[in-house]
Amino acid sequence: MPALRALAPGADPAPPLSILMVASEAVPYAKTGGLADVVGALPGALARLGHHVTLVMPRYREVGTVGTARHHLELGLDGRRLEVGLVEVEVADRYQVVFLDCDALYDREGLYGHAGIEHSDNAVRYGALCHAACEYGQQLEVPPSVVHAHDWQAALVPVLLRTRYAADPAWRRVPVVLTIHNLAYQGLFPPDTMRVLDLPASLFSLEGLEYWNQVSFLKGGINFADAITTVSPTYAREILTPERGEGFDGILTQRRDRLRGIVNGIDGAVWDPCSDPLLPASYSAADVGPKREVKRAVLDRFGLPSDDLSLTRPLVAMVSRMIDQKGLDLICEARVELMALPVSWVILGTGEPRHEAMWRALAVAHPERVGARIGFDEPLAHLIEGGADLFLMPSRFEPCGLNQMYSMRYGTVPVVRATGGLADTVRDVESTTGPGTGFVFDDYTASAMLAALHEALATFGDRPRWAAIQHAGMTQDFSWTASAAAYVHEYRNAIERRQRAGAGRGE
Ligand code: ADP
Ligand code: GLC
Asked: In what order do the strands lie in the sheet with 95-101?
């Protein structure tokens, strides 16, 4: 059995699972945010533990040519017949992607929208993703052990499996795990969507998909999933409260026995300052010296001075969707004080026009110290992580957040608000539970953020202390291995729960 030779140490000794994963984006094929990083890395981590993963996702225009469809499905949606090709691509041992090829739905600019406007047929586009994933799974000779759906775009999968496919004896035993990456995105559509997606009208109810007289994909998923996970333990607790429950705290509280927080890992093959081909110099925890060369390259890229004196000034970075969730409103409020700090800034992001305009204006007003790039640029994100000294994430809420972990890995010290995954992954310098890896503030206020930045800058001058913080961050284990094992644990619990439910009905 040559394939088994590639198993990671600590691989699961129980029989391997076959996991059918459904998601709307995955690195390296299509990305708008952290969901793509997670869905791009988790299958590989599961495969290294010995499991088999098939990921079903759309073949968007930006995926390009990946192969030819050898099988086709026909879906009846939106009053028309949609032909969907299945393009199967072997990515690694035990990991394949099935791309849904349907130009009418996916061959266009932008994943979810373009030029700030959402695609008007997203209900059909992601309804089709869910229908096609279920059809594909049903046609397999051996059904998967478990289905794992991510976010609202895949959240109709549990609904369909427990209703439309409920009578199928093979599918009936297969549990569905739903992962919520961000509860704020709920997949809300007009009531007519029930008809458009060929869903029974009876599901337009409190226990089904109805939410304030709209159809919510995510609510349906929460109601029908066998297990629900979210991407950090703190966020799993936060979403049970009215402040952070986004209106779903009630139904989540009802299902809290099935809810669990599993913190994301990071893909060490993609994010590693020792081997990152996107950096002009490589460095490691043992020798951070070459990081200075990366800093010079970042300053050059943004057209900021990079002479020796400028290199000594702390460089603060943000790579972020420019929306209030990420603390952009706080930054706007504190912009005068922020610009008065003795630092340089590099900013990369896209989002709300007012936040983009603010950063553009700040760059114009402070051409020597502020560089702002409005756009999505993955290679530049790597360069910034490598070259900056501090990374600011003052999020209002943050289900997990990946950039703070990339930052720590790259010796770039994060300044974060204690919320969700930020609270779970960054240890404050004042902490008594272990060596500090960053600066953490509690209150969502401009003054708390500024106090943390002031403290960070005072510490920056203390070189040995700064080096110790960098070292502590760079040597943290953020690998996917533990989180993938936690998902396997959830899968097995869900399988058992489903079997018990079946036994109860005398199946
Ligand atoms: P979220 O998914 O909420 O946006 P995360 O921190 O989980 O936040 O993940 C964001 C991911 O998207 C990171 O990999 C980050 O580097 C990347 N990213 C965000 N904005 C940009 C951008 N403008 N250009 C390149 N990468 C970006
Ligand atoms: C969402 C969240 C982010 C999380 C990412 C991946 O986009 O906003 O906090 O890291 O999903 O799980």
From this structure: 71-77, 80-92, 95-101, 52-58, 18-22, 146-150, 176-180, 227-230, 259-261
39 pLDDT band, cuts 50/70/90, is very high
* Ligand found nearest the CA of 265: 2
Q: Which ligand is nearest to the CA of 150?
A: 2
Sheet strand arrangement including 214-216? 188-189, 214-216, 210-211
Q: Is the minimum distance from the CB of 129 to ligand 2 under 6 angstroms?
A: no
Q: What's the 406 CA to ligand 1 centre distance in angstroms?
A: 11
Is the dihedral angle over the CA atoms 204, 158, 244, 405 positive or is it negative? negative
Q: Ligand 2 in contact with 449 (CB < 6 A)?
A: no
Q: Say if CB 16 and CB 52 are below 8 A apart.
A: yes
* Distance, CA of 179 to CA of 181 (rounded, Å): 6
Give per-residue pLDDT as tens, 418-477: 999 999 999 999 999 999 999 999 999 999 999 999 999 999 999 999 999 999 999 999
pLDDT in tens, 115-149: 889 999 999 999 999 999 999 999 999 999 999 99
Instruction: From residue 146, give the alpha-carbon distance in Å to each of 99, 175, 232, 396, 443.
Output: 19, 5, 21, 34, 40
- Across 106-122, average pLDDT: 95
Atom of ligand 2 nearest to the CA of 402: 10
This model's pTM is above 0.70: yes
Report the half-sphere exposure of 354 (CA within 13 A, side-chain side).
Answer: 7
Distance CA 200, CA 188 (A): 17
Residue ranges of E strands in 80-192: 80-92, 95-101, 113-114, 117-118, 146-150, 176-180, 188-189
> Hey, is 147 helix, strand or coil?
strand
C-alpha 319 to ligand 1 mean position (Å): 6
* Of 113, 110, 168, the residue nearest 143 (C-alpha): 168
Q: Which residues contact 275 (CB under 8 A, 6 or more apart)?
A: 282
DSSP letter (8 states) at residue 372? E
**In this predicted structure, which of 168-172, 230-234, 398-402, 502-506 has the lowest mean pLDDT?**
502-506
